[in-house]
Each structure stands twice: as C-alpha cells, then as structure tokens.
C-alpha cells in the first residue's frame, strides 16, 4: 500500500492553480498566433491581438489571465493500492484552492447556496469526480473553468438511429446559438453515450486532456478534426465578431449506452484554456 | 470590414456621440464608467424603487458589465474583462429608462435588447472577453461607490483612458455578430 499525505499534495495543487491562472501554455499561444495568421477581418484580428497581448501582461504583472478565475473541477484517478492520509481528496483540493485564491488576489466566485447569494469567500468547494484504477498512482486533472463558457453546456438526448453527422449537427446548432457568449475560440468537449448525467461528465473529461492530444481511436480522431472544421465554417469567429476561427479543438469521449438512448453532452472551454495534470 | 471607422469618445456619451456609430466601428473610450453585473443591477433596482438616490447619476451613463478580480497591493485594479451581457438583458429597459446611454460587455444579446438599443438611441459595445489583465491597463482610477458586501459585484466607478471597444449593436439596428457571421459563413446548417 502506498501512502500519500494530503500535506504533500496540497502545495503542488496550489502551485498548479496559481500557474494555470497566470500563464498560458505555449501551445495555446501558438494556436492563437496561427488563428491571427488566418483571420482577415479587422475585428477578429483586433480580438486575437488583445488575447495575445493579455498573455504577456498577465505573466508580467502577476494578474490572472481572466478576472473570472473560475470554479475548480478535478477529475481524480486513484489507484486501489493508494491510501490517502490526513484527510479526503476533497479537503486537499479545497485547502489548495483556499491558499491559492487568497494569496494571489484571484476572484472568489462561488456562492454557498445558489439562492442566498452568500459567497463562500475562498472559492471552495471544488467539483470533484473520483475514479478508481488498478495500480498505486494518483492522478489529478485540474480544470479552471469560467462561468461564461460553462453556461453554454448542452445535453441532447438523441435517438440511437442518429448518424455521427446528426450528432455533429446538434453540436453545430448549439454553438451557432450560443458560442459568441462563451469567449471563442473555444475548446469543445463532446461526450457520447453513458446516460444523461454521464454524457456531460464525459464531455468535461474530454476537456481534461492537454492541448494537442487527439483521440487514440482513428475513427473518433477523424470526427474531431471534421467537426472542428465544420464549427469553424459557422463564421462566428473570435469573440463572435465574425471570423474563421471559432474552435481550436474538438475532443470526443464515448461510453457504452442503453439500446434506447444516445445521450450527447457538450461542455466547452473559453479561449483561456486552463488545464493541468498532476501525478503522484 | 475594412470600412470600420475609428472614434475617440469621452463619457458621458450624448445621443449625438452615438448617432454616427456603426456596427464594427472601433471606439477608444475615456472618462468615468460604472461597473455593474447581475447582483449589482438587482440591488440598484431595489434602491431606485424604494426612493433612494444612487451615489452617481444614471443620465448618459455607460455601464461596463464586469466584476474585477481583487486589487493587489500597489495596483489600481485587478484583472477586469467583460462578463456575458445577455444575463443583463432582463434589466435593460429599466436602466435605459433611467437614462443609461451605453453598455459594454461580451456576446450576443436578446432580440428584444437589440430593439431597445435602437428605441432608446443607445449603443452596445464589446471588448475582448478573457483579455482581462490587458484590459486592466486602461483603468487609471477605481472607487467602490456602494454594495461592498457583494464583493466582485460591488458598485464601482472606473476612470478609463482609451479603453478599446467595438460597436456590436448600433442605434440603427446594425449587429456586428450577425453581419460578421454572414460574411464568414461557409456551411449550411441543417
């Protein structure tokens, strides 16, 4: 049995959260530069230039990339040979968030109750999903997710007769209606299968992949590429001002499902894609 | 898009300032603006309806839909980008009637709001969402006016210099989102 103390993981999670909010990954900067090369309209180019400039200012002035420093989502994979000591994983995550958000002047955006309006004051709790695997490791996939992009999440209970193109059309229609509000260019997560709740979970799981990683199955990889191209043919563009780059990546995750159902979940990340994987 | 004009404007904005603006135009805005988002709007409505006087005049005011991150020591303000404007559509007519002239945010708004902007000779500007550290550079002063208990949603007055904006909805019915999309559309949506 491997023992992992929460005291050991808290500082690492804290550092990751600080880094995610202040620094954009190199690949994201490259993708945004590529977008700038593609866009011709002045409005789209203006938006992309500001996004690129923002990376520099945020890092230099130690200011968060976005004022919305999000709600923290954690996908936790824990080996059955691992024993966590000193507290629960939820407690470890919440303590790391508390420290990171209070020390670094990040915004606390979480209400204790959706109706009372009272802020928890420290940006806790995290939304945590825990899965087990056979082994002695602990992996935590962290996502910092703003409210604007989470608000365009969608669930479609399609019918099992639907073709992949019909699933794509559902995604295209949802994005056509709502993408401008979610700070495009977006990373689009699609979950297919499971049940209603699981399809949305799968879509979130898809966002936990690092940038530039496509699906291992070539069939899904092809759809990811085709759907991205079709989303970009919608013309929504950076910040919705019209343009050729609405979507940076599509990620699909699938799961077995009931013979009567075809649940499709969509969860997006704004262009401030804040993801990190921690391993113990 | 190459026909986009550039304007340098100062608040408070008058109807005359707004009339020439067309969707897609670039505006550099300077002067005082008011920062308010969901809870701030609700609180202001309650105060106005109960006869209280707000600590600023709404006449010809520009409202920025934003809730900044906390101000670090030695800084004027934290990161401050726009929040999704559509959520404030429900308050739009109320505040236009009170004299609000312009709003700043991100994303498309309801068809009703678009019509109201035309009816009240208003304008809806957008600024770049998620470029919040960059946008904090244009703020030269910030004062909390009221509702401090709302944290990031407190009522804040900002002084900005050359805040970079685009005209999203002009007062003649022009809509940058719609025209931008039509211009770049390469697919028929089934």
Quickly give the CATH architecture of chain B: Alpha-Beta Barrel
Q: Report the biggest beta sheet of chain B as strand number plus sense, adding barrel if it closes.
A: 5 strands, mixed, barrel
Q: Largest chain-chain contact? A: A-B, 56 and 54 residues
Task: Identify the strand order in the major beta sheet of chain A.
Answer: 4-2-5-10
Number of helices of chain A: 8
Q: Summarize the main sheet of chain A.
A: 4 strands, mixed
CATH topology of chain B: fumarase
**Strand order of the main beta sheet of chain B, please?**
2-3-4-5-7
Q: On the 0-100 scale, what is the average pLDDT of chain B? A: 96
The number of domains of chain B: 1
Number of helices of chain B: 6
So what's the overall shape of chain B? globular
Quaternary state reads heterodimer
Structure description:
The complex is a heterodimer of chains A (280) and B (190). Chain A has 280 residues and is of the alpha/beta class. Chain A has 2 domains: 2-22 and 65-145, Dihydrodipicolinate Reductase, domain 2, CATH 3.30.360; 147-272. Chain A has helices at 6-22, 26-38, 42-61, 89-103, 147-150, 164-178, 196-207, 218-232; strands at 2-5, 71-79, 82-85, 127-133, 138-145, 154-158, 186-194, 247-257, 262-269, 274-279. In chain A, the strands form 3 sheets. Chain A has a 4-stranded mixed sheet with strand order 4-2-5-10. In chain A, strands 6-9-7-8 form a 4-stranded mixed sheet. Chain A has a two-stranded parallel ribbon with strand order 1-3. Chain B has a 5-stranded mixed barrel with strand order 2-3-4-5-7. Chain B is globular, with a radius of gyration of 16 Å. At the A-B interface, helix 3 and helix 6 of A face helix 5, strand 7 and helix 6 of B.
Question: TL;DR?
Answer:
The complex is a heterodimer of chains A (280) and B (190). Chain A is an alpha/beta fold and 280 residues long. Helix content of chain A is 40%, strand content 25%.
